[in-house]
Write a structure and sequence with these properties.
This protein is α/β, with parallel strands linked by helices. It has a single domain, classed as TIM Barrel, CATH 3.20.20.380. The protein is built from 8 helices and 10 strands. Strand 4, helix 4 and strand 5 form a beta-alpha-beta unit. Helix 1 packs parallel to helix 8 and helix 3 runs parallel beside helix 4. The longest helix has 17 residues. The chain starts with a strand and ends with a helix.
Amino acid sequence: MIIEICANSFASAQAAQAAGAHRIELCTQLSVGGLTPSYGCIEKVLKELDIDVHVLIRPRAGDFIYTNQELDIMKRDIAYCVKIGCAGIVSGALNAQNALNLQATQELITASAGLEFTFHRAFDVVGDPIKTLASLQNLGVTRVLSSGQHVKAIDGIEVLKKLKSSTGNIQIMPGGGIDITNARVFKKAGFKMIHFSAISKVISAKSTTAVSFIEGTEGTSNQYVISEIIDTLRT
């Protein structure tokens, strides 16, 4: 089973590699669902680690309805990822009706210049997942990351099974709340890959100033937790 780790930092990417994960989705700001990491972070991971790197292209928090200016930024970020040698892109765009934005998504795929393209969890808010899946397959998307339109993938597993049974070449990758208590359920259901973060949150020191810039803690992927889940899936 392929293990993809949602890595929100170099330290998380390093932990994923050390634990034996197959690839990472590199991002930042998991507290808002993940945003595009800095160029410096991408470069450091690619130069110092050997794990396959797929980069999240999401310029801001909130919805997945992007202006032309935002799409231009996203395509520029993708161009950097292509140039530096990333293995894949994780992105996608919707329209005002929370349906797939075919034109914008096609532009993002074209900008990716043949890299693997994962349509991210924007998929989990579309109204017709089966129809959307067919459209994404026609666009040439490599895989869809989904929780089955629930907060946690384990609660959306029946939807995920339907998606898996209706696909051609496109891959379905469950993600969202997967941990050691439920990872084997997805393997038994026939899924070939899963996505999780295995984050161990850290407690930051309280601010001693009148103005605090600490909104929350991100934490780091835990090598031992990842290893434990991988070992569980081997049995």
